[in-house]
Structure formats: C-alpha cells, structure tokens
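My main concern about presentation is that the manuscript never shows what a single data entry looks like. Each protein is reduced to its one-letter sequence and a matching series of backbone shape codes. For the editor and my fellow referees, an illustration may be useful. For illustration, here is how one protein appears when written out as sequence plus structure tokens:
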Amino acid sequence: MGNQLSKATHGSTINMMAPVMKQATGKYIAVLSDTSLDRDEEFVGKSALIKIEKDFGYLAGLIDHENKVLNQVCEWVNKSLTEIDGHIVLVAEPKFFESNPNAKIIKGMLDEGAKIGISIGAIVKDFKDTKIENKMHREFTELELLEASFVAIPSNRHGQAMAVAKSFNTKGYVKMSDIDKKFTQTDIDSAILDTNKSFETKVSDLNKQLESKDAKISELNKSIEEKESTNKVVSDKVVELEKTLEVEKKTSLEKQSFIEKLQKDEDDEPSEETEKALKDGKLPMARF
C-alpha cells in the first residue's frame, strides 16, 4: 500500500501490490487485496473486501495506473475471497482484451514467465481504529476499488504464499512461515510439472473409460444385429411354411372336388381329366 497520509485521507487512492500467478488450467489469478497489516501497520477490513467481492460492476485492468485507452488491457472477473494464514484474501482473474496490442504484450510476457505484479488503486470511503494484540491499527472498512494495474514489482507476501500453494496443488493455502523455506523456481516448475502430469493422468483415465464404453456399445450393437438376423431367418421360415400350407390346402380342395365328381358319375368311364388327376397324385387310388 502507499504511504500513511494518502491512505488515511478520504477521497485519496491507495495502492497494494501482489504477484500475478498462472494456474494449472492456464488461466491467471492475482491477489487484489487482503486483511493483513501492511508496512504502515494498517489493513483493509473483511467488511470492505466482502463489499468489493459482491460488486459486480466493471473493474478495469490498466498498465502502471495510467488512465489511457490503450493502457486498458483487461477486465478483472471472477472476484472471490479465500483464506491464507488466517487472513481474508481477495483474488480475481484477468479477462484480456486481445484486440489491444498492449494486452497481447502483457499476456505474452506472463506466458514467457515474466514476474509481473498487480497494484490496485482505491478510494478510502471509511475507516476505524481497531485493536490488534494490544495495539491500535487503522482498518479501512469501505473502499471504492477504481482499477487494478499491472506493475513491475509485486510485494504482497500473501500473493507469494498463494503462488506456492497453487504450484504445489495443496488442498489449502500454505502458511506465511512456509515462505521462509524460499522455494526456488526449480521447485515451483517441478510442482507445476507434477500438476500437469496429474492432469494428463486424469485425461488418460477418462479416455480409457470412454474406450470401455465404446466397446460395450459395439458389443450391444452386435448382439442386436445377431437377434435381428435370427428374427429374419424365423420370419423367412414362417413365410415358407405359409406357402406350403397354401399349396396343401389347394391340393386338398382339388382332391375333394374330384372325389365328389367320381361319386356322382361312378358308373361312367373315368374322364381324361380324372385320369390325369390320378397320375398327378391328386386323387387317391384304390386297388381291388
């Protein structure tokens, strides 16, 4: 944050600086503010941070606090509160305006590993004195957050704690005492590599599950095709039987007709038609 005079005066701006960090998803996140004491032993209160988080208005991302059109490189989105070492921390993600050449430069520098920080500009609306460990400290209870700029030198130690925690993919954020371990860039790169491997493993497992499901679907389709083939064979046999029955029925009717005719004309000589029917097996032949 800036000096004590500028922060304590209503209507003036304050500055807090924190690093920009890359997440495992490839997106970036930054600490905008927190409830820890700064070098002037003052702090932003939890109530102020909650109001800022719930403000869904537009929050511009500038370069070096210069209020120029081409210095507006992003909008800060997805503001949220988390906890680090007992302190409430406000974080947000930059949504870069990639049509702006300056935005491409900032994002490109981050992608290449540049250490770029965030400094916010806010107007103090209200404050109070709060006792912490038997000592009075100024607590800013209401702020109007104007913008958050990309700057060269980040300094917020909670931002460093978050960077380590994110890199090592911990369930909770590390304590400030962990920063004293002075993790090297090699340590962090290794942690990020492990996180990426974990992600790749999950993708591989998911692909295996999809392949297994595809195999089951293929097996089911094959079973359906086999049943359809069986049903066709049965259907063809039914049609064949129906045709056979139809022929048998027709032959039976013809036999019955000839028998009736023979019975009627039993004293007459068999006609040529009767003779032919006998030869064709359409009439029963009795031998005496």
